[in-house]
Design goal:
Elements: H1 19-22, E1 31-35, H2 42-55, E2 59-64, H3 77-87, E3 93-98, H4 106-117, E4 121-127, H5 130-136, E5 144-148, H6 154-161, H7 175-199, H8 203-207, H9 211-232, H10 239-251, H11 259-266, H12 270-282, E6 286-289, H13 296-301, E7 305-308, H14 312-318, H15 331-346
Parallel strand pairs: 1-4, 1-5, 2-3, 3-4
Antiparallel strand pairs: 6-7
Helix pairs in contact: 3-4, 6-7
C-alpha cells in the first residue's frame, strides 16, 4: 500500500468553499464522490481532508488509483475487503480513492465494498469524467453524495492572491454601503478581476506569478486534458473534427448553439456531433444551458447557450491579446463569468 501525497500544500493551501459542504457528511453511511476536471484541486482537497481527519485521530488510507492501476485490489473487490477486515478489524477507517474511475467496473467495486464494510469504512473518492462517473455509479443509488469541484471562484481567487477580507454581501437596498465598498476596493478588485477573466481559475495557474509561466501551464493543462484524457480515454474517432468543434464552441462562447449549423460546418453526422457535445460537457470543458420556460417541451426544443468551464480556454485556443481590457464591452466574457459565479453559489 502506498500513500501518495499530491497537490499544492507544499506551496500554499487555499481554503475551498466546497469543504464546508463535504465536512457534515464525514462519518456517515454514504460514499462521498468529488467530481470535476483534472487539476481543479480534487487531490488537494482529498489530502486536506486526510490531514484534518488524522489531526482528529482518525485512521485514513489513501490510494492514487491512476498511479496504482495494476494493484490486484482493483481487479477483485473481495481481496480489498479481506485486506481491510484483517488489517483494521477493530477500527473505523476512511478510505480515499483518487481517480477511482480507473478501476474496472468502478461503480460495482464501490457498491460491493460499501455493502460489506459500510459500518466500518467510509469511502471518499474522486473522478475526472462525469461520463465515466455517471456510467459507473448506476449501482450506487442511495449510497452516494456527489460534490462538484470546479476551478476557483473569484472569491477563492481573491483569497489566494490577496490578504483583503472581501466576504461582503449586499442587497439591492444597500446602495450607500455598496458605493463605499466600491470607493475603497475598486482598484484592487479591478486588477484582480482582469487577471481572473484572462487566466481563469485553475489553482496552479493562479498561484503562479510569472505571466509567461501562466501561459505555459494553461496550454499544458488544456492540451493534456483534451488530447490525452478526452481523446485517448474516451476514444474519439475523428480527432480533427473534435478539435475543430472545440475551437468553434470557444468562439461562440455566450451564444446560442445551433447543432445543425455545427454539423454542416464540421461535416459530422448529427449523432456524432451530439456524442462529442456530450463528451465535452461530461468532461467539464463546456456547459450547455437551456433557456427557462414553464413549458418543458419548449425548453428542451430551444437552442442552448454555451459557456466555458474555465475562462482560460478562450485565451489559449483563440490566442487573444494578453492585455485584455477590463471592459464590459467584452459581453461574452462577463456573461460567462456571471454564469460560473452563479453555478458556484447555487451548486448548479
Amino acid at each position: 500500500m502506498r500513500c501518495i501525497i499530491m497537490g499544492m500544500e507544499a506551496k500554499k493551501y487555499i481554503k475551498r468553499d466546497v469543504l464546508e459542504e463535504i465536512k457534515p457528511w464525514l462519518g456517515k453511511e454514504k460514499i462521498l464522490i468529488l467530481k470535476g476536471a483534472r487539476q481543479v484541486g480534487k487531490t488537494t482537497i482529498l489530502n486536506h481532508l486526510k490531514m484534518e481527519l488524522e489531526k482528529a485521530q482518525k485512521k485514513v488510507i489513501y490510494y492514487a488509483v491512476d498511479l496504482e492501476i495494476n494493484n490486484p485490489f482493483w481487479q477483485e473487490p473481495k481481496l480489498f475487503i479481506k485486506f481491510v477486515k484483517e488489517q483494521f478489524a477493530d477500527q473505523y477507517i476512511y478510505i480515499i480513492l483518487d481517480e477511482f474511475q480507473y478501476i474496472k467496473q468502478s461503480g460495482l467495486f464501490l457498491k460491493v465494498v460499501f455493502d460489506q464494510l459500510k459500518e466500518q469504512v467510509q469511502l471518499i473518492v474522486s473522478g475526472s469524467s462525469s461520463l465515466e462517473i455517471t456510467k459507473n455509479t448506476e449501482y450506487l443509488t442511495g449510497r452516494k453524495i456527489a460534490f462538484a469541484i470546479n476551478p476557483f471562484s473569484f472569491k477563492e481567487y481573491i483569497r489566494a492572491k490577496s490578504e483583503l477580507k472581501l466576504d461582503h454581501l449586499f442587497t439591492l437596498h444597500q446602495y450607500p454601503e455598496l458605493e463605499e465598498f466600491n470607493q475603497i476596493y475598486k482598484s484592487p478588485l479591478k486588477s484582480m478581476l482582469t487577471d481572473y477573466l484572462l487566466y481563469g481559475g485553475y489553482p496552479e495557474v493562479i498561484l503562479e506569478n510569472n505571466f509567461g509561466a501562466k501561459n505555459i501551464i494553461i496550454k499544458e493543462l488544456i492540451n493534456t486534458y483534451i488530447q490525452k484524457d478526452i481523446s485517448g480515454f474516451l476514444k474519439i474517432e475523428n480527432t480533427s473534427a473534435f478539435n475543430n468543434l472545440i475551437r468553434l464552441l470557444v468562439s461562440q462562447n455566450g451564444n446560442m448553439v445551433n447543432k445543425l449549423e455545427l454539423s454542416n460546418s464540421l461535416n459530422l453526422s448529427y449523432e456524432t456531433l451530439n456524442k462529442y457535445l456530450d463528451i465535452l460537457v461530461g468532461t467539464y470543458v463546456f456547459n450547455l444551458v437551456r433557456p427557462f420556460y414553464t413549458n418543458v417541451r419548449k425548453e428542451i426544443s430551444k437552442m442552448p447557450k454555451i459557456y466555458l468551464n474555465d475562462l482560460s480556454l478562450k485565451k489559449v485556443l483563440l490566442k487573444e491579446d494578453d492585455q485584455l481590457e477590463y471592459d464590459f464591452a467584452q459581453g461574452s466574457v462577463i456573461e460567462n463569468f456571471a454564469f460560473l459565479e452563479l453555478r458556484q453559489k447555487f451548486a448548479l
